[in-house]
Design a protein that fits this description.
With 773 residues, the chain is mostly helical. Helices cover 75% and strands 0% of the residues. It has 42 helices and no strands. Helix 5 packs antiparallel against helix 7, helix 15 (293-304) runs antiparallel to helix 19 and helix 34 (648-659) packs parallel to helix 36 (678-692). The N and C termini lie far apart (94 Å). The relative contact order is 0.06.
Length: 773
Amino acid sequence: MSPNRLDNLRTLRFANADTAFATAFVTLTTGVFLVGFVQHLGGRDLWIGLLSSIPSLMGLLQIPGAIWGRGFPSFKPFVLPGAVLWRVCYIPLVFLPLLPMSNELRLGLLAILVTVASAAATIPNSIYNDWLAEMVPDNSRGWFFGRRNAIATAVAAVIGIVGAVALDSMRATGREPLGFSLVFGIGMLCGLGSLVFFLMMRDVPRANPVKRNLKEGLEAIGAPFQDLAYRKVLIFLAVSTVGQAFAGNLFAAYARESLHLDFKILQGTAVFMAIGNVATAPLWGFLSDKYGNKPILTLAGYLIALNPLPWIISIPGRDTFNTVLLLGSHVLMGMFWCGVTLCQFNLMLSTANSDDRANYLAAGLTTTAVVGGVAPLLGATMMAALRNPFEPVVAYKIVFFTAVFLRIGAVFMLRPVDEPGSKKIQTALRDLSGVTPRGMRAMRSLSRTTDVAAREEAIQSVGEERITLAADEIIKALHDPLPRVRRQAAAAIANLRDPRATDELIHQLVEHPDLVEEEAIESLGTLGDPGAIPALLRTLESPRSLLRRASARALGRIGARTQGPETEAILPALVHAASDDNDPDLRRAALQALRVIGGAEGASAVVHALSDELPSVRIAAAEAVAELELHDAVPELRQALLDYDDEASAEVAYALGVVGTADDIPAILQEAKGSDSVITRRRCLLGVARLLGTEQQAYRLFLLEGMARDTALMDLLRPQLRRNQSVQAALKAYSNGDEQAALRALARAKPELRLLAEHPVPELFLVAAPAVA
């Protein structure tokens, strides 16, 4: 019986526990401690390179292992023997530091143990990863493997510190062999713990076991290499691994030989690296699931090219400087490596043929393993060759510089790779460049909180900060059972400019018309996609008045942005809505939309609305006349001033100032004189200023007050003050509070202003003064 999703989740938890203990086992029996043990036995660069390369070279066995394992009806029976043998091979390592034999013999025995153990672990490796991939959904691989890598990194850092403290304590008392034996012994206990959790994992039956004879097996081995698309992935993996593994364990060797760092400091770098890794693992997983592995791996690939730089600028003898530099920089190194490790593995999964995934994974893992075995040998060989012409410090740094350029060059090999569903690197960088601390806090809050007010605030912040990374969460919120959350999501999604936004909002209009709020319709107008026009035209007939008005505004915004056959239905619909006798607010919204769109087809509806009984409709019509400069509306404007006396008259007066003539100034000033508020009076006066060609200057003076306004007037009139006594008299009268006398004085300076002097209105001087200047 096949396990269900909950069974798989439980098994994956056991797998992560297995990984935690297995990582502790590997940390204490390989890596820095193995390098230290080799140096203790007198092994130099080539021994270090050899023992670093053996596990990688054994990666060749993954391909026959994948072919062999595909024939098993399930995964666990094939993986188990290798898992046991891998751990058993390291038991002699616990006693090797204490055995009474020559160093050369111990080094040889160590090489044999590492070789057999590596082979045992490598043969079932691709089947084990295929087992995990079978249980993890495609859209959650970034999330799962990101957490898995973070667990492994954190455990490696913590257990490494424990081992380093124990080893340094033993070394300080002259018991270094016992210290290595103790560290290796703790590692073996962790290895047994990992085996316990491995045995608790539930097996998964294979859907299609494939047993092959030798010929078929050989053909299957070549399948991934003959697949042109996957071959590009393999080439990238090979080149990338060269850059990643070229310096190999030489960083640790340099730290011990040239910088003379204690094991505690060396393992401390692993702790700080783990901090960066664990802190960013969820982010890298989220990014790889959202954008695909290729663009994120491109970014991370460039970043890891920076990792050797702190080692390069370290200075032997400057212990404090080196400690601070290396510990601090390893946080960033951990962040960068986390992205590369996760995306590189997931790239193999996403580009592999799902029907032969184990074999494809084996090809990818073998490529990285073999190249990862050869690369450190090349680095070690280069280091050995550079020791004669250079000091060891310089030789190490030349190797590190070489690794930098190899890593940069590897990124270019990612360009030909085609990953289905991945987005362009430019898209990812554009979205990431807009991320702010406030936006990140909002994203975390949105994904974690269940409080309604907090979710609303988080959605609002995401929209305001334009955090496109959160688009998936906002789209999900459009289907939230709480109306408040849906409204906020609809308002925010337009700011994110996600290409899916229009379709999601149209879905709301079409499938849930009774649940739609005006925020969703307004967002469609903001997005401006013509594809929304049919749905908006239907909503223009909605029984809900709020939606009708919102649809009119949205159609106006779309029509203003896009001209073409798809928008031809907008103007007739808006013209019809502008004459709807039953909904004055819809008439107003339609007129505003026609104003935004412009064009002769809507002009007649605008002019007709100047005689509407409702002030709000006439205001919208007058605004449209002014903005579109509809000179044919002059008779209707003049008549409206005669027929109505309300707040709309000020807007009508301004529109008359835009499209009328100087003969209309008395009527406009009469309206200004009868205005009850500063707003409407100034609107009329701006109409007069428009006829005089001084609207901008008058508007600026309206905005100023007190001494700032007086100073602006003096600066404006200064050229005239020196040669025109009437202007001097006008300014003096204005400063004394006699605006009528000031206007008469300006009329003497400029006779065209007599009409203004004959119809004095408060603040009219601010319109007349710029005309004189």
